[in-house]
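Quick one, T. Sequence first:
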Amino acid sequence: MLQRIYGTAFETVDELNQYLWRLEEAKKRDHRRLGKELGLFSSSPEVGGGLILWHPKGALVRHLAEDYCKKEHLSNGYDLVYTPHIGKSELWQISGHLAWYKENMYSPIDIEGEEYYLKPMNCPFHIMIYKSQIHSYRDLPIRLAEWGTVYRFERSGVLHGLMRVRGFTQDDAHLFCRADQMPAEIDRVLNFCLHILQKFGMKDFHAYLSTRDPEKSAGDPQKWEDATLALQAALERVGLSYDIDPGGAAFYGPKIDLKMIDALGREWQLSTIQFDFNLPERFDLTYIGEDGNSYRPYMIHRALLGSMERFMGVLIEYYGGAFPVWLAPVQAILIPIADRHIPYANTLSETLKAQGLRVHVDDRGERMNAKIRDAQNQKIPYMLVVGDKEMESGEVALRMRNGDNPGAIPLVDFLARAAEDVAAGN
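Structure tokens:
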């Protein structure tokens, strides 16, 4: 009887030790375990597989991330829109989703004899916003952005925490521009992606440029060539390392996939910049040129963080749950040594909250060391211990989640330190 045996070999002991370290570190950073331990999110068989329930702490982290991104979008030339969760079958027929993507869509809903579908993508809705009025060449580029929740059918066997779900929210944007605006628009989008991701502390990236498959592509080959060269030139101007994926583009246009490399050397898919020559034709998109004639705009799909669910999963694993101060759901916890110190801790809490910090008072009847250990396990950035000495001096005894113990400092000094850490993205 033959038995197949699988094994992994290493040339040196150091390589083996590094491999074992990565395996152990990956377990420690697993977002599913940390999500439960830190009270960030959960799922429930009663709700359904691949449908995420965001708990208060996880929802707050997500809100802070989204709020920052939305403000950056508004200050960088985007307009925010909202669109429905369902659309008539006619919309998905025009877009081609019922022909090309139906297996990933949920069954139709009958409403007064007409079929509606949960949206798997936001793009047809943004296109209808563009089509709702006539546009001049002076109006372009138009950049429509939405944190739009979509629904895609995934087999139960491939569902994985936050990384592979059935309902998720994309930070979606669709750009409509003239041919002469295309190179500058690609530069702008790519630099904007890097700007946002670097705010979250991500620094190492690798890109993939997917090019046309001559057998499976729609649209003018010259437009494909122009768009591919524009994407490649943008990557080179930014100085990103990239690989070519020959023939790897979708049938409707070339794309850039931007992947972040974490401390374990793993690649995580985040931003996508995708040209589309298909939907502008299908929906007959036009703008009026300087000569009074109608022209077809270029359309670019752009997801920056990708989906908020997947990005949150990546973020949890990237930081091992120890979010930077500006994203931490609880930034500081006040630990009174005895019950008589609780009023002083509550007074300090109100002062810190007035300065914009997210603060909690641990007034449980536990020993001080147990409270400190729990705060460290919850990965709270600052622990402020208060007792008789601190009440007398008006100070706080500062401890850090990394084990540093600066000791007693004036409250004003702590506020300055916290403000500096928040500003630095620490």
